[in-house]
Amino acid sequence: MASKISKELQELTPDEVLKLKDVLLKTRETLHEKSRERKAEGMYEISRDDLADEADLASVETAQDVGMKLAEHDRHKLNLVEKALKKIEANDGSYGLCEGTGEPIGFRRLEVQPWVLYSLRYQEELERGRRA
Q: Are 123 and 102 in contact, with CB atoms under 8 Å apart?
């Protein structure tokens, strides 16, 4: 068991970094494409002239609100992806290290979300309010 834990906390190999970089680049492109699609579909615009009544207006405004929240989530995720890519490009060993503790995050966690900033343990402490 101890060897499994220590393996999880080892720094990333160059091959692992390349694999994660590829995922980050694909994620970035997907997020850019979603943003372009939203703009092309007019997701950010409401034309009151085309709406028949208040119910239509409320429905459109609700859909737009959801769309804006999704877009904001994507912008936040894109910022994290960009930050991760900059760390990789810096080639200074900072990618894959917890920003709270400086310890390695672990490849398995990064496979799920290669843009995460914190180790699972530190993230849980943040969510419980034990860290500031």
A: no
